Automatic annotation (TrEMBL):
This is Putative membrane protein YGL010W. Keywords: Membrane, Transmembrane, Transmembrane helix. GO terms for cellular component: membrane. The keyword Transmembrane helix applies. The lineage of its organism: Bacteria, Pseudomonadati, Pseudomonadota, Gammaproteobacteria, Moraxellales. InterPro entries: Mpo1-like.
Length: 148
């Protein structure tokens, strides 16, 4: 028990997080599902949050960005830009809580289908922080493609 607590309290590098996350994301179909569903979940979660409480969502977004800046400045910038784009698009969409919640649920179903195909449990079953590493993994994949 103490070892688990110590592991959670230790500061992993972005590379360590991404390496561990990648273990359960090897299958090409699962990867493609995640590249689509992870950003969709992120944006729909912002949509749900904005429909409930703008200020709470903005504060939570700032806390998420603090998590990312601790890992990597380029990741922080990429995710900050992504959040700003999401919030800007939402300002012009007339969608409410039900639509965003529906998108959220459908995207999660996609994620679980991907993990069924992969034959591995989602990483967040081990550590909830992996819920924030998924978007980082997608952003990192996009940044690597751009640089290659």
């Amino acid at each position: 028990m103490a070892r688990v607590k110590q592991q959670r309290m230790s500061k992993r590098t972005l590379e360590q997080w991404l390496s561990e996350y990648s273990i359960s994301h090897q299958n090409l179909v699962n990867k493609k599902i995640h590249w689509l569903c992870v950003p969709t979940i992120f944006v729909s979660l912002l949509g749900v949050g904005m429909s409930l409480s703008v200020w709470f969502t903005l504060v939570l977004s700032a806390l998420v960005l603090l998590f990312y800046i601790r890992l990597s400045t380029p990741l922080f910038l990429a995710m900050g830009i992504f959040i700003l784009i999401c919030l800007s698009v939402m300002a012009f969409l007339p969608w409410g809580f039900k639509v965003w919640a529906g998108i959220f649920i459908v995207a999660w179903i996609g994620q679980f289908i991907g993990h069924k195909i992969e034959g591995e449990k989602p990483s967040f079953f081990k550590d909830l922080q992996f819920l924030l590493i998924g978007p980082a993994w997608v952003a990192n994949s996009l940044m690597q493609r751009k640089n290659s």
